[in-house]
Amino acid sequence: MEAAATVIFFSFIQSLFGMGLLVFGTPTLLLLGFEFSEVLAILLPASIVISLLQLYEDKLVDGRFARQFIVWCLPALGLGLIALLEFGAAISLELALGTIMLLSVCFQMLPRYSVKTNGMIRHHLKAWFFIMGAVHGISNLGGSVLALVANSCFHEKSDVRKTIAFCYLCFACIQLLILYNFKPEIFTWSQLYLMSIAGAVYVALGRRTFASLHQAVYERLFLAFMFGYGVVLISKAFA
């Protein structure tokens, strides 16, 4: 019941921004007493469904961005997750990542600093991809870096969402493959039920809400999302 309610609520958030299930669903389920591997088994399949539906509607992502992401980010993700599952000790990065996100939101609200911040991220995109993969592998918090990168490289709401959806789809597929190899016993038929719930939320509610949002409203909502993400990370660091 708790897992289904979590998937329903945060599937709507992911329908708008391309992420949300793992961002907020992971700490929620951990607080409810689920093990980290169980949390991944619950959320990753549902996340994949929404990402696929978003990519089907928003079409192809930027080719150059996708190629660099695959080459520089995904290997770091795989190595980081294997190390986490093998040695069983997650690294606490919440405070650092949360602080970076809050500072980024502040800079984005000031045009002078926004241009400099976005230019810096685009100029060092390969390094940001590697950091993103490593962070996601060892902490499942790579979405914080992804939000910064996507918001710096793209401006149209459909471009931002489909870029995040593509990256999260790649994240989830690799994580599922590695997780199944290490802990196949945690996968049950309940994952199919949760996947259908996530898809239904997107089709019935998320898709229509996204289409109704004007670009300026979406940009403000995305900054609010990033701010909320940063607050959650910092709060978790001091919990």
From TrEMBL:
It is a multi-pass membrane protein. InterPro entries: TM_pro_TauE-like. Keywords: Cell membrane, Membrane, Transmembrane, Transmembrane helix. It is found in: Cell membrane; Membrane. Pfam families: TauE (PF01925). Belongs to the 4-toluene sulfonate uptake permease (TSUP) (TC 2.A.102) family. This is Probable membrane transporter protein. The lineage of its organism: Bacteria, Pseudomonadati, Pseudomonadota, Alphaproteobacteria, Hyphomicrobiales.
